[in-house]
Write a structure and sequence with these properties.
By secondary structure, the protein is of the alpha+beta class. The chain has a domain of about 55 residues: 2-Layer Sandwich (Dodecin subunit-like), CATH 3.30.1660. The chain has a four-stranded antiparallel β-sheet with strand order 1-2-4-3, with helices on one face. Strand 1 and strand 2 form a beta hairpin. InterPro entries: DUF5703. This is DUF5703 family protein.
Length: about 80
């Protein structure tokens, strides 16, 4: 039984991932799909999580990337004049 995958979920300690699901038609060649996924990886920061090739030839691809949270800077006291 397959479990549903939410778009954002924590994996491990303090790491959050964002997921993107793609369905690619069988008309696209293997080279075209490779170029598409490499472009997403280089320019969007995505990495391959899972690939499923269905019986009709369509590819179901799940990409993931880390969500980086910026911590707020805390100031103690007034800054010193220079």
């Amino acid at each position: 039984m397959a479990r549903p995958r939410p778009t954002d979920r924590p994996l491990g300690r303090g790491v959050e991932w964002q997921f993107e699901k793609l369905t690619i038609s069988r008309e696209f060649s293997r080279n075209a799909v490779t170029r598409l996924l490499v472009d997403r990886a280089e320019h969007g920061g995505w990495e391959l999580d899972r690939v499923q090739i269905r019986s009709d030839g369509t590819r179901r691809v799940i990409l993931r990337r880390k969500i980086i949270r910026q911590r707020q800077t805390v100031w103690f006291g007034d800054p010193q004049p220079v």
